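Below sits the subject:

***
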Amino acid sequence: MKKRILVVESNKDILELISIVLDEAGYESSLYANEIDIFEHITKFKPHAILLDIVRPTVQGTELCRQIKAAEGTSHIPVIVLSTHPQIERVKEVCADEVVPKPFDIDTLLETLIDQLGSTN
């Protein structure tokens, strides 16, 4: 059974790239360009991990991440935050299981995903 990865990324080009990378690595992905109805998507898709684009590590910027980690039905799902912000490591203190700075190396992204999925087995 393929591991399911939910991706929330506002940049369409990056979203398409991640889709190709995940597909070639043998993952099933569900892609979203925004956060609208994301909890409904999480409930239906039942992802093994979430890749989440966060522009800024502020209260507003990390709200979705915090909601995912606080909700009973989703708190167990690893959240890997993708961001260009220079202080993105701070998001790990707030909610993320891991962070991958953009621009990211594809191998680093996949290694991070494998590490996080290993912690869910």
